[in-house]
Design goal:
With 455 residues, this protein is of the alpha/beta class. The protein has helices spanning 2-28, 35-40, 60-76, 89-98, 121-131, 145-153, 167-175, 177-184, 195-203, 217-221, 229-237, 256-267, 286-295, 336-339, 361-365, 380-388, 398-410, 412-428, 432-443, 449-454, and strands at 52-56, 81-86, 112-115, 135-139, 157-163, 189-192, 211-213, 245-252, 274-280, 300-302, 306-308, 314-316, 327-329, 345-348, 369-372, 392-394. It contains 20 helices and 16 strands. The protein folds into two domains: 25-221 and 431-440, 3-Layer(aba) Sandwich (Rossmann fold), CATH 3.40.50; 229-428, Rossmann fold, CATH 3.40.50.2000. Helix 3 (60-76) links the parallel strand 1 (52-56) and strand 2.
Protein backbone atom coordinates (compact mmCIF):
# COMPACT_ATOMS: atom_id res chain seq x y z
CA UNK A 1 0.00 0.00 0.00
CA UNK A 2 2.83 2.37 0.89
CA UNK A 3 4.55 1.60 -2.43
CA UNK A 4 1.34 2.50 -4.28
CA UNK A 5 1.12 5.82 -2.45
CA UNK A 6 4.72 6.60 -3.36
CA UNK A 7 4.01 5.73 -6.99
CA UNK A 8 1.09 8.17 -7.02
CA UNK A 9 3.27 10.92 -5.52
CA UNK A 10 6.06 10.24 -8.04
CA UNK A 11 3.64 10.31 -10.98
CA UNK A 12 2.18 13.59 -9.75
CA UNK A 13 5.65 15.14 -9.49
CA UNK A 14 6.59 13.78 -12.91
CA UNK A 15 3.49 15.27 -14.53
CA UNK A 16 4.25 18.67 -13.01
CA UNK A 17 7.89 18.54 -14.13
CA UNK A 18 7.22 17.04 -17.56
CA UNK A 19 7.22 20.30 -19.61
CA UNK A 20 10.59 21.30 -18.17
CA UNK A 21 12.03 17.79 -18.56
CA UNK A 22 10.82 17.60 -22.16
CA UNK A 23 12.33 21.01 -22.94
CA UNK A 24 15.71 19.99 -21.49
CA UNK A 25 15.59 16.65 -23.29
CA UNK A 26 15.01 18.31 -26.66
CA UNK A 27 17.43 21.18 -26.13
CA UNK A 28 20.34 19.41 -24.41
CA UNK A 29 19.73 15.69 -24.84
CA UNK A 30 19.40 15.20 -21.09
CA UNK A 31 17.16 12.43 -19.72
CA UNK A 32 16.81 10.61 -23.05
CA UNK A 33 19.45 7.92 -22.56
CA UNK A 34 18.41 4.80 -20.68
CA UNK A 35 14.69 5.61 -20.61
CA UNK A 36 13.61 1.97 -20.64
CA UNK A 37 15.99 1.11 -17.81
CA UNK A 38 14.86 4.11 -15.78
CA UNK A 39 11.07 3.85 -16.27
CA UNK A 40 10.58 0.12 -16.63
CA UNK A 41 13.64 -1.43 -14.97
CA UNK A 42 14.65 -3.32 -18.11
CA UNK A 43 18.34 -3.37 -17.21
CA UNK A 44 20.53 -6.14 -18.66
CA UNK A 45 19.64 -9.44 -16.99
CA UNK A 46 22.47 -11.20 -15.18
CA UNK A 47 22.80 -14.82 -16.35
CA UNK A 48 25.21 -16.31 -13.79
CA UNK A 49 24.77 -17.56 -10.25
CA UNK A 50 27.93 -15.90 -8.92
CA UNK A 51 27.57 -13.50 -5.96
CA UNK A 52 26.79 -9.96 -7.07
CA UNK A 53 27.35 -6.50 -5.59
CA UNK A 54 25.35 -3.61 -7.07
CA UNK A 55 26.99 -0.21 -6.51
CA UNK A 56 24.93 2.90 -7.15
CA UNK A 57 26.68 6.18 -7.98
CA UNK A 58 24.49 9.18 -8.83
CA UNK A 59 26.81 11.07 -11.16
CA UNK A 60 30.42 11.78 -12.08
CA UNK A 61 31.80 12.42 -8.58
CA UNK A 62 30.36 9.24 -7.09
CA UNK A 63 31.36 7.18 -10.14
CA UNK A 64 34.99 8.23 -9.72
CA UNK A 65 35.12 7.80 -5.94
CA UNK A 66 33.90 4.20 -6.28
CA UNK A 67 36.76 3.23 -8.56
CA UNK A 68 39.19 2.34 -5.78
CA UNK A 69 36.52 0.45 -3.81
CA UNK A 70 35.41 -1.55 -6.84
CA UNK A 71 38.98 -2.40 -7.84
CA UNK A 72 39.86 -3.55 -4.34
CA UNK A 73 36.68 -5.63 -4.04
CA UNK A 74 37.42 -7.28 -7.39
CA UNK A 75 40.94 -8.10 -6.18
CA UNK A 76 39.80 -9.56 -2.87
CA UNK A 77 36.70 -11.31 -4.16
CA UNK A 78 37.32 -12.54 -7.72
CA UNK A 79 34.17 -14.67 -7.42
CA UNK A 80 31.93 -11.57 -7.22
CA UNK A 81 30.20 -9.93 -10.19
CA UNK A 82 29.98 -6.14 -10.01
CA UNK A 83 27.16 -3.99 -11.36
CA UNK A 84 27.42 -0.19 -11.29
CA UNK A 85 24.42 2.07 -11.85
CA UNK A 86 24.31 5.80 -12.37
CA UNK A 87 21.52 8.31 -12.82
CA UNK A 88 22.94 10.90 -15.21
CA UNK A 89 24.21 10.80 -18.78
CA UNK A 90 27.50 12.35 -17.73
CA UNK A 91 27.87 9.78 -14.97
CA UNK A 92 27.39 6.98 -17.49
CA UNK A 93 29.88 8.54 -19.90
CA UNK A 94 32.56 8.69 -17.22
CA UNK A 95 31.69 5.19 -16.00
CA UNK A 96 32.26 3.79 -19.47
CA UNK A 97 35.72 5.36 -19.49
CA UNK A 98 36.65 3.83 -16.14
CA UNK A 99 34.92 0.46 -15.86
CA UNK A 100 34.43 -2.65 -17.92
CA UNK A 101 35.99 -3.38 -21.28
CA UNK A 102 38.02 -0.55 -22.78
CA UNK A 103 38.51 0.39 -26.42
CA UNK A 104 41.80 -1.51 -26.56
CA UNK A 105 40.15 -4.71 -25.31
CA UNK A 106 41.49 -4.50 -21.77
CA UNK A 107 39.25 -4.55 -18.71
CA UNK A 108 40.41 -1.92 -16.23
CA UNK A 109 37.80 -2.61 -13.55
CA UNK A 110 35.36 -5.38 -14.54
CA UNK A 111 31.78 -4.20 -14.13
CA UNK A 112 28.39 -4.16 -15.84
CA UNK A 113 27.05 -0.62 -16.27
CA UNK A 114 23.34 0.25 -16.08
CA UNK A 115 21.08 3.23 -15.52
CA UNK A 116 19.47 3.35 -12.08
CA UNK A 117 15.69 2.79 -12.20
CA UNK A 118 13.40 5.56 -11.07
CA UNK A 119 11.80 4.76 -7.72
CA UNK A 120 8.53 3.47 -9.17
CA UNK A 121 7.63 0.12 -7.63
CA UNK A 122 7.39 -1.67 -10.98
CA UNK A 123 10.74 -0.33 -12.23
CA UNK A 124 12.79 -1.13 -9.14
CA UNK A 125 11.22 -4.59 -8.70
CA UNK A 126 12.03 -5.57 -12.28
CA UNK A 127 15.57 -4.18 -12.08
CA UNK A 128 16.26 -6.05 -8.84
CA UNK A 129 14.84 -9.26 -10.32
CA UNK A 130 17.08 -8.95 -13.40
CA UNK A 131 20.30 -8.08 -11.55
CA UNK A 132 19.69 -10.40 -8.54
CA UNK A 133 22.22 -8.66 -6.25
CA UNK A 134 23.42 -10.15 -2.98
CA UNK A 135 24.51 -6.72 -1.75
CA UNK A 136 23.43 -3.22 -2.79
CA UNK A 137 25.90 -0.44 -1.90
CA UNK A 138 24.54 3.11 -2.14
CA UNK A 139 27.24 5.78 -2.44
CA UNK A 140 27.05 8.70 0.01
CA UNK A 141 23.30 9.20 0.52
CA UNK A 142 20.76 7.69 -1.86
CA UNK A 143 17.65 6.73 0.10
CA UNK A 144 14.96 5.59 -2.34
CA UNK A 145 12.18 3.84 -0.38
CA UNK A 146 10.75 1.57 -3.09
CA UNK A 147 14.19 0.51 -4.27
CA UNK A 148 15.45 -0.31 -0.77
CA UNK A 149 12.24 -2.22 0.03
CA UNK A 150 12.48 -4.23 -3.22
CA UNK A 151 16.12 -5.05 -2.55
CA UNK A 152 15.31 -6.34 0.93
CA UNK A 153 12.34 -8.40 -0.32
CA UNK A 154 14.68 -10.09 -2.79
CA UNK A 155 17.00 -11.09 0.04
CA UNK A 156 19.76 -8.59 -0.78
CA UNK A 157 21.66 -6.82 1.97
CA UNK A 158 21.77 -3.02 1.69
CA UNK A 159 24.58 -0.67 2.75
CA UNK A 160 25.29 3.04 2.52
CA UNK A 161 29.01 3.57 1.85
CA UNK A 162 31.09 6.73 2.13
CA UNK A 163 28.00 8.15 3.80
CA UNK A 164 27.68 11.84 4.49
CA UNK A 165 24.86 14.18 5.43
CA UNK A 166 24.91 17.94 5.09
CA UNK A 167 23.27 20.12 7.76
CA UNK A 168 20.50 20.95 5.28
CA UNK A 169 19.75 17.28 4.56
CA UNK A 170 19.90 16.50 8.26
CA UNK A 171 17.31 19.14 9.07
CA UNK A 172 15.01 17.87 6.35
CA UNK A 173 15.26 14.22 7.37
CA UNK A 174 14.74 15.06 11.05
CA UNK A 175 11.37 16.60 10.21
CA UNK A 176 10.41 13.24 8.66
CA UNK A 177 11.98 11.07 11.34
CA UNK A 178 8.83 8.97 11.75
CA UNK A 179 9.35 7.92 8.12
CA UNK A 180 13.14 7.84 7.87
CA UNK A 181 13.43 5.61 10.94
CA UNK A 182 11.40 2.89 9.22
CA UNK A 183 13.37 3.33 6.02
CA UNK A 184 16.80 3.26 7.68
CA UNK A 185 15.84 0.16 9.65
CA UNK A 186 15.89 -1.71 6.31
CA UNK A 187 19.55 -0.83 5.75
CA UNK A 188 22.06 -3.33 7.11
CA UNK A 189 25.11 -1.12 7.46
CA UNK A 190 26.15 2.53 7.23
CA UNK A 191 29.82 3.26 6.46
CA UNK A 192 30.07 6.99 7.11
CA UNK A 193 32.90 9.46 6.73
CA UNK A 194 33.03 11.17 10.15
CA UNK A 195 31.77 11.01 13.71
CA UNK A 196 29.57 14.03 12.99
CA UNK A 197 27.90 12.29 10.08
CA UNK A 198 27.44 9.19 12.24
CA UNK A 199 25.60 11.27 14.82
CA UNK A 200 23.35 12.76 12.14
CA UNK A 201 22.44 9.34 10.76
CA UNK A 202 21.55 8.10 14.23
CA UNK A 203 19.48 11.21 14.93
CA UNK A 204 17.29 10.59 11.88
CA UNK A 205 16.68 6.98 12.87
CA UNK A 206 19.61 4.77 11.82
CA UNK A 207 20.18 1.90 14.31
CA UNK A 208 23.34 2.95 16.21
CA UNK A 209 24.88 -0.53 16.09
CA UNK A 210 24.83 -0.46 12.28
CA UNK A 211 26.62 2.89 11.89
CA UNK A 212 30.40 2.65 11.39
CA UNK A 213 32.88 5.49 10.92
CA UNK A 214 35.19 4.38 8.11
CA UNK A 215 36.53 7.72 6.85
CA UNK A 216 36.15 9.07 3.32
CA UNK A 217 37.02 6.88 0.36
CA UNK A 218 37.81 10.07 -1.55
CA UNK A 219 41.10 10.42 0.32
CA UNK A 220 42.27 6.97 -0.80
CA UNK A 221 41.42 7.69 -4.43
CA UNK A 222 43.31 10.99 -4.53
CA UNK A 223 46.40 11.17 -6.72
CA UNK A 224 49.31 12.95 -5.01
CA UNK A 225 52.01 12.64 -7.69
CA UNK A 226 52.10 15.65 -10.01
CA UNK A 227 54.23 13.63 -12.43
CA UNK A 228 51.49 11.08 -13.13
CA UNK A 229 51.02 10.31 -16.82
CA UNK A 230 47.61 11.99 -17.22
CA UNK A 231 48.76 15.28 -15.70
CA UNK A 232 52.05 15.23 -17.60
CA UNK A 233 50.16 14.73 -20.85
CA UNK A 234 47.86 17.66 -20.12
CA UNK A 235 50.82 19.91 -19.32
CA UNK A 236 52.24 19.18 -22.75
CA UNK A 237 48.91 19.57 -24.55
CA UNK A 238 48.11 22.86 -22.81
CA UNK A 239 51.60 24.10 -23.73
CA UNK A 240 52.42 25.06 -20.15
CA UNK A 241 55.99 26.13 -19.50
CA UNK A 242 57.61 25.28 -16.19
CA UNK A 243 58.24 28.95 -15.47
CA UNK A 244 54.52 29.76 -15.72
CA UNK A 245 52.24 30.04 -12.69
CA UNK A 246 49.06 28.02 -13.14
CA UNK A 247 45.73 28.96 -11.59
CA UNK A 248 43.05 26.26 -11.95
CA UNK A 249 39.42 27.16 -11.24
CA UNK A 250 37.58 23.83 -11.15
CA UNK A 251 33.96 22.67 -10.82
CA UNK A 252 32.79 26.24 -11.35
CA UNK A 253 29.19 27.38 -11.80
CA UNK A 254 27.64 30.72 -12.68
CA UNK A 255 28.64 33.38 -11.57
CA UNK A 256 32.04 31.96 -10.67
CA UNK A 257 33.44 32.01 -14.20
CA UNK A 258 32.73 35.76 -14.35
CA UNK A 259 34.34 36.30 -10.96
CA UNK A 260 37.46 34.32 -11.90
CA UNK A 261 37.86 36.07 -15.26
CA UNK A 262 37.52 39.48 -13.57
CA UNK A 263 40.28 38.55 -11.12
CA UNK A 264 42.48 37.14 -13.88
CA UNK A 265 42.10 40.31 -15.97
CA UNK A 266 43.24 42.46 -13.02
CA UNK A 267 46.23 40.24 -12.19
CA UNK A 268 47.69 39.80 -15.66
CA UNK A 269 49.52 43.12 -15.60
CA UNK A 270 51.37 42.45 -12.35
CA UNK A 271 51.74 38.69 -12.95
CA UNK A 272 52.39 38.15 -16.68
CA UNK A 273 53.37 34.51 -16.14
CA UNK A 274 49.96 33.64 -14.66
CA UNK A 275 47.95 31.10 -16.71
CA UNK A 276 44.28 30.34 -16.12
CA UNK A 277 42.58 26.96 -16.60
CA UNK A 278 38.78 26.98 -16.25
CA UNK A 279 36.85 23.74 -15.68
CA UNK A 280 33.06 24.31 -15.50
CA UNK A 281 31.10 21.62 -13.71
CA UNK A 282 28.15 21.31 -16.09
CA UNK A 283 28.50 20.22 -19.70
CA UNK A 284 25.62 22.40 -20.86
CA UNK A 285 27.57 25.49 -19.75
CA UNK A 286 30.70 24.80 -21.83
CA UNK A 287 29.74 26.87 -24.87
CA UNK A 288 28.41 29.75 -22.76
CA UNK A 289 31.67 29.88 -20.81
CA UNK A 290 33.66 29.81 -24.05
CA UNK A 291 31.67 32.82 -25.32
CA UNK A 292 32.21 34.58 -21.99
CA UNK A 293 35.99 34.10 -22.20
CA UNK A 294 36.09 35.43 -25.74
CA UNK A 295 33.85 38.39 -24.85
CA UNK A 296 36.46 39.45 -22.30
CA UNK A 297 39.07 39.61 -25.05
CA UNK A 298 41.04 36.53 -23.99
CA UNK A 299 42.41 33.99 -26.42
CA UNK A 300 40.95 30.58 -25.66
CA UNK A 301 42.27 27.04 -25.90
CA UNK A 302 39.39 24.53 -25.80
CA UNK A 303 40.22 21.04 -24.63
CA UNK A 304 37.46 19.50 -26.76
CA UNK A 305 39.15 20.77 -29.94
CA UNK A 306 42.49 19.16 -29.26
CA UNK A 307 43.74 16.01 -30.89
CA UNK A 308 47.07 14.30 -30.45
CA UNK A 309 48.29 11.95 -33.14
CA UNK A 310 50.58 9.29 -31.74
CA UNK A 311 54.19 10.00 -32.54
CA UNK A 312 53.37 13.30 -34.22
CA UNK A 313 53.36 16.91 -33.17
CA UNK A 314 50.49 18.25 -31.10
CA UNK A 315 47.68 19.49 -33.31
CA UNK A 316 45.25 22.03 -31.85
CA UNK A 317 42.23 23.16 -33.85
CA UNK A 318 41.17 26.79 -33.87
CA UNK A 319 43.99 27.96 -31.64
CA UNK A 320 47.14 29.92 -32.49
CA UNK A 321 49.84 28.77 -30.12
CA UNK A 322 52.00 31.77 -30.86
CA UNK A 323 49.49 33.93 -28.95
CA UNK A 324 50.74 34.28 -25.40
CA UNK A 325 48.86 32.91 -22.42
CA UNK A 326 45.55 31.66 -23.77
CA UNK A 327 42.90 30.78 -21.21
CA UNK A 328 42.42 27.02 -21.22
CA UNK A 329 38.79 25.84 -21.11
CA UNK A 330 38.48 22.19 -20.13
CA UNK A 331 35.16 21.42 -21.80
CA UNK A 332 35.40 17.64 -21.40
CA UNK A 333 34.32 15.25 -18.65
CA UNK A 334 36.34 13.20 -16.21
CA UNK A 335 39.65 15.09 -16.52
CA UNK A 336 39.48 17.50 -13.58
CA UNK A 337 41.35 15.10 -11.29
CA UNK A 338 44.37 15.23 -13.58
CA UNK A 339 43.98 18.97 -14.25
CA UNK A 340 44.28 19.74 -10.53
CA UNK A 341 47.84 18.36 -10.73
CA UNK A 342 48.78 21.37 -12.87
CA UNK A 343 47.63 23.90 -10.28
CA UNK A 344 49.95 26.12 -8.28
CA UNK A 345 46.80 27.92 -7.06
CA UNK A 346 43.45 26.11 -6.99
CA UNK A 347 40.05 27.75 -6.68
CA UNK A 348 37.37 25.16 -5.86
CA UNK A 349 34.03 26.11 -7.41
CA UNK A 350 30.50 25.74 -6.16
CA UNK A 351 31.51 27.86 -3.19
CA UNK A 352 30.24 31.20 -4.50
CA UNK A 353 27.35 29.57 -6.37
CA UNK A 354 24.55 28.18 -4.15
CA UNK A 355 25.76 24.58 -4.36
CA UNK A 356 27.49 23.98 -1.05
CA UNK A 357 30.95 23.64 -2.56
CA UNK A 358 32.73 20.91 -4.48
CA UNK A 359 35.45 18.42 -3.65
CA UNK A 360 38.62 20.20 -2.53
CA UNK A 361 40.44 16.98 -1.59
CA UNK A 362 41.99 16.46 -5.03
CA UNK A 363 43.86 19.79 -5.32
CA UNK A 364 44.85 19.43 -1.66
CA UNK A 365 46.38 16.02 -2.41
CA UNK A 366 48.56 17.51 -5.13
CA UNK A 367 49.82 20.17 -2.72
CA UNK A 368 48.20 23.12 -4.49
CA UNK A 369 47.44 26.34 -2.63
CA UNK A 370 43.70 25.76 -2.18
CA UNK A 371 41.18 28.62 -2.04
CA UNK A 372 37.38 28.44 -1.83
CA UNK A 373 34.45 30.74 -1.13
CA UNK A 374 31.99 30.88 1.76
CA UNK A 375 29.41 28.28 0.66
CA UNK A 376 31.02 24.92 1.42
CA UNK A 377 28.50 23.23 3.70
CA UNK A 378 28.56 19.97 1.69
CA UNK A 379 32.25 19.53 2.60
CA UNK A 380 32.31 21.23 5.97
CA UNK A 381 34.30 18.52 7.75
CA UNK A 382 37.06 18.60 5.13
CA UNK A 383 37.02 22.39 5.14
CA UNK A 384 37.36 22.53 8.93
CA UNK A 385 40.36 20.19 8.87
CA UNK A 386 42.10 21.99 6.01
CA UNK A 387 41.64 25.38 7.66
CA UNK A 388 42.76 24.03 11.04
CA UNK A 389 46.00 22.61 9.64
CA UNK A 390 46.74 25.70 7.53
CA UNK A 391 46.12 23.86 4.28
CA UNK A 392 43.60 26.20 2.63
CA UNK A 393 42.26 29.75 2.53
CA UNK A 394 38.56 30.59 2.67
CA UNK A 395 37.38 33.91 1.25
CA UNK A 396 34.06 35.66 1.73
CA UNK A 397 33.78 37.85 -1.36
CA UNK A 398 34.93 38.11 -4.96
CA UNK A 399 37.13 41.07 -3.97
CA UNK A 400 38.82 38.98 -1.29
CA UNK A 401 39.38 36.18 -3.81
CA UNK A 402 41.24 38.61 -6.04
CA UNK A 403 43.38 39.85 -3.17
CA UNK A 404 44.27 36.34 -1.97
CA UNK A 405 45.08 34.98 -5.41
CA UNK A 406 47.26 38.02 -6.05
CA UNK A 407 49.12 37.49 -2.77
CA UNK A 408 49.64 33.81 -3.50
CA UNK A 409 50.85 34.56 -7.01
CA UNK A 410 53.50 36.86 -5.52
CA UNK A 411 54.58 34.58 -2.63
CA UNK A 412 56.01 31.17 -3.56
CA UNK A 413 56.81 30.43 0.07
CA UNK A 414 53.19 30.91 1.11
CA UNK A 415 52.00 28.68 -1.72
CA UNK A 416 54.44 25.98 -0.63
CA UNK A 417 53.36 26.25 3.00
CA UNK A 418 49.67 25.86 2.15
CA UNK A 419 50.31 23.04 -0.28
CA UNK A 420 52.52 21.01 2.06
CA UNK A 421 49.98 21.25 4.89
CA UNK A 422 47.09 20.25 2.61
CA UNK A 423 48.92 17.25 1.15
CA UNK A 424 50.01 16.05 4.61
CA UNK A 425 46.41 16.16 5.79
CA UNK A 426 45.16 14.13 2.80
CA UNK A 427 47.84 11.46 3.31
CA UNK A 428 46.91 11.18 7.00
CA UNK A 429 43.33 10.23 6.07
CA UNK A 430 44.08 7.13 4.00
CA UNK A 431 42.48 3.80 4.93
CA UNK A 432 38.73 4.19 4.31
CA UNK A 433 38.69 1.83 1.33
CA UNK A 434 39.98 -1.14 3.35
CA UNK A 435 37.43 -0.50 6.12
CA UNK A 436 34.61 -0.20 3.58
CA UNK A 437 35.57 -3.47 1.87
CA UNK A 438 35.68 -5.27 5.22
CA UNK A 439 32.16 -4.06 5.98
CA UNK A 440 30.83 -5.11 2.56
CA UNK A 441 32.62 -8.46 2.77
CA UNK A 442 30.73 -9.15 5.99
CA UNK A 443 27.44 -8.73 4.13
CA UNK A 444 28.35 -11.02 1.23
CA UNK A 445 28.14 -14.79 0.88
CA UNK A 446 31.30 -16.59 2.03
CA UNK A 447 34.11 -17.00 -0.49
CA UNK A 448 33.86 -20.49 -2.06
CA UNK A 449 36.63 -22.87 -1.07
CA UNK A 450 37.80 -23.33 -4.68
CA UNK A 451 38.09 -19.55 -5.23
CA UNK A 452 40.09 -19.25 -2.01
CA UNK A 453 42.49 -21.97 -3.15
CA UNK A 454 42.82 -20.41 -6.61
CA UNK A 455 43.60 -17.05 -5.06
Amino acid sequence: MFALLLDIVYVFILVLAFPWLAFKAVRTGKYRAGLAEKFFGTVPARDSDRPCVWFHAVSVGEVLLLKRVVAELARRRPDVEIVISTTTNTGMEVARKNYGEQADGTRSVPATLIYFPLDFSWAVSRAIARVRPDVVALAELELWPNFIAAARRSGARVAVINGRMSPRSHRGYRRLRFFTRRLLAKIDAFAVQTDEYATRFVEIGAPPDRVHVTGSVKYDAVETDRQNSATARLREQFVLRHDELVWVAGSTADPEERIVLDVFAKLRGSHPSLRLILVPRQRDQFDAVARLIESRGFQILRRSRMAVAEGEELQIANCKLQIANPVVLVDTLGELSAVWGLADIAFVGGSFAPRGGQNMIEPAGYGAAVVFGPGVWNFQDTVDHLLACGGAVQVATAEELGRVVGELAADAGRRQQLGDAARAFVLSQHGATAKTIELLDGLMPALPAQSSEAA
